[in-house]
Amino acid sequence: MPEAKKAKSTASKSSTDPARIGVLGASGYTGADLARLLLRHPNASIVALTGDRRAGQPMSAVFPQFAGFNLPNLVTIEELDAAALDLVFCALPHGTTQLVIKDLMEKHADLKIVDLSADFRLTDPAAYEKWYGHPHQALELQKEAVYGLVEIYRDEIKAARLVANPGCFTTTSILAVVPLIEAGAIVPDEIVIDSKTGMTGAGRSPKETMLFSEVSEGIHAYGVGNHRHMAELDQEFSLAAKRSVTPTFTPHLAPMNRGIYATHYVRGEGKTGPEQIHRVLVDFYAAEGFVKVLPFGQVPQSRHVRGSNYVQIGVVADRTAGRAIVISTLDNLVKGASGQAVQNMNLMLGFPEHMGLDQIALFP
After folding, report:
1. Which among 121, 202, 260, 343 is least buried, having the fewest CB atoms inside 10 angstroms?
2. By C-alpha distance, which of 247, 141, 127 is closest to 187?
3. Which residues carry out catalysis?
4. Would you say the C-alpha torsion 273, 279, 284, 290 has a positive or negative sign?
């Protein structure tokens, strides 16, 4: 079986050496997918993996798919040698992450960080406090952080020291809707989003409500009218419209491991119809490698992006004149989390954007 690239020592790094990478929170699903992607990245070397509850154990004891790969053992965050790293991925819970990152960046000014939690996604401290229940504890870094949706903020990400990886629901909907708002193609005040997520979106911690018998053979809405990803949607849709926009958003839990499947109901602005809405998306993503806009009238399927960093978007005419149904889908652990994080890393470190991310979806 192939082996991972061996961890590099703390000696000085030459310009030809792979980037030295650490993953904080490697014992979760996003941490595992980061390891999976980085193992095949030609310019990255996994130097450190943290998992406080599993410290001292090999990664293969937590995720057996890594048996036979030469990965460093899990350590606590306190044991992390951040001076030996070029970039850190933080796949830790929101709330605690901001203090960990603040400490890292105060001690290691040259360290680059991609944060997969929600701690730095919102630019308004009041909005963060409202949605997450406590004041932000690293306000200066919150101002510095760049929202890490590459197709929208590519240039800003290239120059960033701290990137806030977007949420999976929000990535799916922002990619489908923001180009339409920016082009003035749809009415911003009439956006309705019905979104489905796979089970891995809930994380790996054991929960009674996540048991197989609790979630299989059915589907249900949750966080109705009050899901935290609404704050990101409000922020990014409002920036695109240059005024306040508050979409209707309802998430649902679907009995599948991976995937986000979002259906957006929109009305064309003025005489703009569904085919013109489709053309806006085709033109916007014409040069983008990871976002695929399907032919008009064709509907994407979540299984066709599973395991990949690709997004598929379809546009169908509603039976009501002037209205359109825009459907987008991605893998919540890849483009919705770890793949997007690696895409951000590539830009931050000056690598080709697609490096390590070209795998095609696993189907069937």
Report:
1. 202
2. 247
3. 168
4. positive
Q: Comparing C-alpha atoms, which of 197, 303, 188 is closest to residue 255?
A: 197
| CB-based burial, 30-63: b 16+ in 10 Å, e otherwise | bbbbbbbbbbebebbbbbbbbbeebbeebbeebb
Q: What is the pTM of this model?
A: 0.93
Q: Among residues 176, 170, 161, which one has the least CA distance to residue 232?
A: 170
Mention every residue, 6+ apart, whose C-beta is less than 8 A from residue 262.
169, 172, 173, 176, 193, 194, 195, 196, 327, 328, 329
Q: How confident is the model at residue 281 (pLDDT cuts 50, 70, 90)?
A: very high
Question: Is residue 330 within 8 Å of 168, Cβ to Cβ?
Answer: yes
Residue 349 — φ and ψ, nearest 5°?
Answer: -100, 5
* pLDDT at position 6: 36
286: tokens are 């014409």
Residues 6+ away with beta carbon under 8 Å from 287: none
The position carrying tokens 């590099």 is 8
- Write the single-letter amino acid at 81: D
H or E stretch covering 46: strand 44-50
Among 26-40, 70-84, 195-209, 214-228, the minimum mean pLDDT is found in: 195-209
> What residues form DSSP beta bridges with 24?
50, 90
pLDDT tens, residue by residue, 4-16: 433 333 344 555 7
